[in-house]
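retry 2 of 3: previous attempt timed out while embedding threonylcarbamoyladenylate. Reduced batch size to 1 and resubmitted. Inputs unchanged:
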Amino acid sequence: MEIIREGDLDEKLDYVKKKLLKGGIVAFPTETVYGLGAHAFDEKAVKKIFELKNRPPDNPLIVHINNLKMLGDLVEEIPSKAHLLMEKFWPGPLTLIFKRNKKVPAIVSAGLDTIAVRMPSHPIAKKLCDIPIAAPSANKSTRPSPTTPEHVIEDFFKEDIVLIDGGKTEIGLESTVIDVVSGEILRPGKIGIEELKEWLPSVKILGLSSPPQKKVKSPGMKYRHYSPKVPLILSENLKRDIERHDGKRIGIIASCERVRGGIDKKISTGFVREYSSLEELAANLFQWFRELEKETDVILVEKVEERGIGVAIVNRLKKAASKVSS
Ligand code: TXA
Ligand code: MG
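retry 2 succeeded.
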């Protein structure tokens, strides 16, 4: 692994782009999480991404761009509803699904005839993405998404990749993924249904407002995800779940009101992570998973309200959890 600091990037930008153009792999920060990127039109390089991550071959990637002209080579058509969303939310943490232009290697979309595209707002991503970059989150499959360069190092240190160190990412959860034509949110994110509704009145969260579907619309939905190495429990009742795990080293993620109100005396304060807003929880959630898994036997996360970014937080917690207590 070669690490380039943010301050040195301008000087090394040509070098990094040449790497991408020659089939190299570059990990870079976005406003959501770090991505592990390859040139989207380089089939071999994209295949390498799947191998490095140990990603199931039927889980498609998102292509990152920094200007609208690039869409022409990636998508077959731009539905009229997409224009409004792109105008309002790009650059930013919103991924749109289009019909794939056949010029794009099928492996990018894991063989689907659609393609996911997003225009990130992070200044480093913006500098790189005049090359179309296919990039999943820069973590090994099933691991928590990386929100700091250290997380990328943890998962890929021995690999032949370039990492651009841009510090901690701001949002901490991956982009909202939306199928514009059907109006379905395939993966909730920072941009929530309330915000989207204004620009796409037909919007709905897949699985909530529609009857259960047999076919998985976003292949990423069916896999175990984001998981720490120790069991994680989404807890509706912290006191009872603490009692249930008596004798174990218990990690706790809870609101500061909850922590101030007192948590069991047996819990070591070093194993408690507290937040004062849901934005703060989102920004730190994956980092806390990676910290607490090293020191505890089980992680209890206090359930949060499914409103605003809380919808995305609960979505990730349910996927990461070995158990949802009730
Ligand atoms: O914020 C993000 O989106 C980050 C940063 C790096 O941009 N990327 C990210 O990529 O989270 P990844 O690969 O970890 O997640 C991509 C998600 C998966 O759930 C995948 O199934 C879905 O997008 N997806 C990709 N292409 C799709 C397609 N053609 N149709 C439906 N879902 C698609
Ligand atoms: Mg991912």
